[in-house]
Write a structure and sequence with these properties.
Structural class: alpha+beta
Radius of gyration: 72 Å
CATH topology of the largest domain: Alpha-Beta Plaits
Largest sheet: 6 strands, antiparallel
CATH superfamily of the largest domain: Reverse transcriptase/Diguanylate cyclase domain
Bound molecules: guanosine-5'-triphosphate
Number of domains: 4
Distance between the termini: 77 Å
Number of strands: 23
Number of helices: 18
Strand content: 15-25%
CATH class of the largest domain: Alpha Beta
Oligomer: single chain
């Protein structure tokens, strides 16, 4: 116990106040979330950078390789021309004798070069750089200065020489030139000048980008004195390719200048538009050119982010789709479960309804706070209400039978206050047809908690038919009871009724201290009557005697009974000996007054009675109980009757000691009591 108290005290002790720690914890939490978000942002940015730099590097490398391959292929084609002995002999012969068929042959050869190898132009030139032939016919004029220089170099080196990309007034576009020298043995014959349009063959190599970024482009750049000369195909700007000349000293931060200055790989710079760009620079093998691929930083990042968002969006969409599918599946299963439950509930309700109908029992709940009944269909039908299952307290009170309304309310009120089960039957007037019906209500009040309203749940049963049957049964039983105590011939009480009355009246006599008298009587010579007049007449005689006797007895409590055969007895509560004798004599006179002829009688010509009279007083028989008193009364009256018979009949004898001696000469013997089943 002590331990419990200690524990309770510990439990009840106020806890330390830590509320001031909460803002600190919240601040720390916020700080760590912010720091985490910053770290994630930094990591993401770094990842973007690596991703973009890697992508740009790959593009630059691919384009540079494309350029190198392209140049190598052109050089190989030019070398093949130099080594073509047939071509050299044909040129030598044509130069010796300019026959038209030889010229046509050479023109054909030049045409094949233009069409198959996709050169813009192909010229045959002599060793001085004079233009001799082209696919369309003879040509006139001199090689431009750079090509002239390249021709001399080619003739000296006996191998093709490239004239790098440049602008020439004779062409409307940047050109790339090749001079393939021709020799007849060791004797130089001239050369084939191959002209390439950079726009159609070279620039497309720089325009292959995996991105739609508008600022992404690749530029060819080379040093020319103190300037960087750049050729940009201007991939997506819809403009003519431009050639830029950037003085090195003025554009130090420009990516093209930096590339010319020797920077390689990926680097960040600011271009001629003052935009921050990411650039990758690499040298094109076997050429003075550098390839610079660049993209605006903002543009590249937004594109990478867009790609990531696209991926994320795709993932999120897939996730949502999956969630949607799961939700639909869950919903479908819930719907299936609900449908099964509903089915089962409906089956149960139907079963309950049928059971209620079969038993004519309805159930209800009464809410004491709302003063409303919620009932089953059967209960509504019993009260004669619509099947919506609702009934207010006022409605219910209106249905109660006016004779019992107050009593029913009292019974309900008591059950509610004392929380005792309610078992009651009362009458109602049905709401729909105002028919009077009996109902039996069983209910119990309950209350889940103090906050909840108390409610009564119970059953109501229409017992009208049962009540009617019970009433009929009780009437029938009462009639049967009466029949059991009635003599069928004379319609007066029988021996059983007499015995019950004697016991009952003796108890009353004892209570009230009053006497109780008995007169026993017997029709004289009745055997002779039967013998003379027949049994039917005998029955009739007995009926007339009984009628006469009952007509005389008018006092409440006086009882005439047929004791057996032609014997009658009269019980006289409150009668002492004189009063009993007076009644007996009057009875005798009454029968005599009938003057029923009796030719067989030895004592008179009419029907007469012999009577024995006795009266007991509780004062003299204080300890005698009902059964015993009845025995004494019957015995004494019978003894007196016996004496009356013995002494000549047609007389009244009062019981006395001599009567008993006469009745039982060998001594007194108590009479056996008469029980109802003896009848
Ligand atoms: N008709 C008719 N006769 C009955 C009835 N009950 C008894 N008896 C007859 O009543 C007669 C009674 O005869 P007893 O007991 O010899 O007596 P008694 O002939 O009246 O002679 P005492 O009583 O000595 O005067 C019998 O013959 C019975 O058959 C009855 O209900 N109807």
């Amino acid at each position: 116990m002590q331990m419990l108290t200690t524990l309770l005290r510990q439990h009840a002790r106020p806890r330390p106040r830590v509320w001031w720690l909460l803002p600190l914890v919240a601040l720390l939490l916020l700080g760590s979330i912010g720091w985490g978000a910053h770290r994630i942002y930094q990591e993401r940015e770094l990842r973007y950078r690596h991703q973009i730099e890697g992508g740009l590097h790959a593009v630059n490398l691919l384009q540079m390789r494309g350029l190198a391959d392209w140049r190598a292929r052109r050089m190989a084609e030019a070398a093949a021309l130099t080594q073509d002995g047939l071509l050299a002999r044909a040129v030598a012969q044509w130069r010796k004798t300019a026959a038209p068929e030889r010229e046509a042959l050479l023109r054909e050869r030049l045409l094949i070069l233009v069409e198959q190898a996709r050169y813009t132009a192909a010229y045959l030139v002599d060793v001085q750089g004079r233009l001799l032939l082209q696919p369309q016919g003879t040509a006139a004029g001199l090689l431009p200065a750079p090509e002239q220089q390249a021709l001399q170099q080619a003739l000296v080196q006996a191998q093709p020489v490239v004239v790098e990309l440049r602008r020439d007034p004779a062409f409307a576009f940047e050109i790339y030139g090749l001079l393939a020298p021709l020799f007849d043995g060791d004797r130089p014959l001239g050369a084939v000048w191959l002209v390439v349009d950079a726009r159609t063959t070279l620039y497309p190599l720089l325009q292959t980008w995996p991105s739609h970024s508008p600022s992404a482009e690749s530029v060819l750049v080379r040093r020319q004195g103190d300037a960087a000369v750049a050729l940009s195909p201007l991939r997506l700007r819809g403009e003519e390719p431009t050639a830029l000349q950037l003085p090195l000293a003025q554009h130090r931060r420009d990516p093209l200048v930096q590339a010319v200055e020797g920077v390689r790989g990926a680097f960040y710079a600011s271009d001629y538009r003052e935009q921050e760009v990411l650039a990758v620079a690499s040298a094109v093998p076997d050429s003075p050119w550098l390839l610079v691929s660049k993209v605006d930083v903002a543009d590249a990042f937004s594109e990478a982010q867009r790609r990531e968002w696209l991926g994320l969006g795709l993932l999120a969409s897939l996730g949502l789709l999956l969630l949607g599918c799961i939700a639909m599946l869950w919903q479908w299963r819930a719907w299936q479960r609900e449908r099964a439950l509903k089915g089962e509930l409906e089956r149960n309700l139907r079963w309950l309804d049928n059971a209620q109908k079969a038993a004519a029992v309805g159930y209800f709940t009464y809410d004491t706070r709302r003063e409303t009944f919620v009932m089953s269909r059967m209960a509504s039908a019993i009260f004669g209400l619509p099947a919506d299952g609702r009934m207010t307290l006022r409605q219910w009170m209106g249905l109660l039978h006016p004779d019992e309304g107050a009593q029913v309310l009292q019974i309900h009120g008591r059950a509610m206050t004392e929380r005792t089960p309610l078992r009651t039957q009362y009458r109602i007037r049905r709401a729909n047809d105002r028919q009077e019906r009996w109902v039996e209500v069983w209910g119990e009040y309950s209350q889940a908690s103090a906050a909840e309203p108390s409610r009564m749940t119970g059953t109501v049963q229409d017992i009208t038919e049962r009540r009617h049957t019970e009433e009929q049964l009780s009437r029938y039983r009462a009639a049967l009871e009466a029949q059991v105590r009635l003599d069928p011939l004379t319609q007066v009480a029988n021996r059983l009724a007499l015995h019950e009355a004697v016991t009952h009246e003796w108890s009353r006599a004892q209570r009230e201290g009053t006497p109780l008298a008995m007169v026993m009587m017997d029709v004289d010579h009745f055997k002779a009557y039967n013998d003379y007049y027949g049994h039917v007449a005998g029955d009739q005689c007995l009926r007339r005697v009984a009628e006469a006797l009952s007509a005389l007895l008018g006092r409440a409590g006086d009882l005439l009974a047929r004791y057996g055969g032609e014997e009658f007895a009269v019980l006289l509560p409150g009668a002492d000996v004189p009063a009993a004798m007076a009644v007996a004599l009057r009875l005798q006179d009454q029968v005599r007054a009938l003057a029923l002829e009796h030719r067989g009688s030895a004592c008179s010509g009419i029907v007469t009675l012999s009577m024995g009279v006795t009266s007991l007083h509780p004062q003299q028989h204080a300890d005698v109980a009902g059964q015993e008193a009845a025995q004494i009364l019957f015995q004494q009256a019978d003894a007196a009757l016996y004496t009356a018979k013995q002494t000549g009949r047609n007389r009244v004898v009062l019981y006395g000691a001599d009567c008993m001696a006469a009745l039982h000469p060998s001594g007194w013997t108590p009479l056996t009591p008469i029980e109802p089943h003896d009848l």
